[in-house]
Amino acid sequence: MNIREELQQVQLFSNLELLARQVVEGFISGLHKSPFHGFSSEFAEHKIYNQGESTRHIDWKLFAKTDKLYSRKYEEETNLRCHLIIDNSSSMHYPPVKQQTIANLNKIGFSVLAAACLMQLFKRQRDAVGLSVFSDTYELYTPERGSERHYHKLMAHLEELSEPRLPGQGTKTYTYLHHIAEKIHRRSMIFLFTDMLQVETDREALFDALRHLKYNKHEVILFHVVDKDKEVAFNFDNAPRRFTDIETGETLDLFAENIREAYTEKVEAFFAALKMKCAQYKIKYVEADTAKDLQKIMLSYLVERQMFA
Fold first, then answer.
1. What is the pLDDT of residues 100-159, one digit of tens each?
2. CB atoms near residue 72 (< 10 Å)
3. Is 0.85 topped by the overall pTM?
4. Is 185 helix (H, G, I), strand (E, B) or coil?
5. SS3 letters for 64-81?
6. φ, ψ for residue 179 (rounded to 5)?
7. Assign residue 90 a region: left if phi > 0, alpha if psi is -120 to 50, beta otherwise?
8. Cβ(186)–Cβ(216) under 8 Å?
9. Which of 145, 148, 133, 115 is nearest to 7 (CA)?
């Protein structure tokens, strides 16, 4: 998939000016105040100087007037630090798609194009963005940066992800979410694109790995990417079929009708538990059905975010 060409078809960006007026604080409200303090931009406020601190930022003019020592506090120019995390296991490449376009995306295609859209927003705001990719290995880690060169490097990585992947690439979501959480030290906005399908650990341990992403007060948004027609509704005809787990290679011969009710009950229970845990951990849950319009999903999230900012 040529992401740059597909981005030209996504009308999300023609609505940025409208959304910028609607969203009080968020991706597209222009440059907003950072909750982080550095020494690279505008003066914010004074604080009392404590013995042992660096004297570099003491306001000597104020000292001359008040005979008291105060240090200057500054606000960073970079208003957000954002980290994109993409699950690149074999299940994310379902269903097989020969030519990915905005009208025909599988789970990895949806994730890649949505991530590219977010990167466009970050670029417009001069935000720093990083990228992690995992499957059964930690395939890629790039720290948050805001340069033009870095942006093009990440775009090239995303384009590579949309290429078809052979079956057999498993998922170590539990392992690598913990690993990534330990690597992101500075407070950031974290976007996770995954189908949450894995056999590495049990449900509670998986949810605990999600909670770890909240470490250091990160804001976490989970894009739960699924093909609801097949993976939730189990909408297959009743001809005898051999179902193959594309990550483990295990097979099962059955009639879809015979297990549909029990299957959908368990899947829906898992999704309900996931949504409940996200609410409990204050993780924003976004259902991303690949059959639905990517632009509408992204716009809905961006507009809604004014209530979560």
1. 777 788 999 899 888 888 888 788 778 899 999 999 999 999 999 988 899 889 988 988
2. 16
3. no
4. coil
5. HHHCCCEEEEEECCCCCE
6. -60, -45
7. alpha
8. yes
9. 115
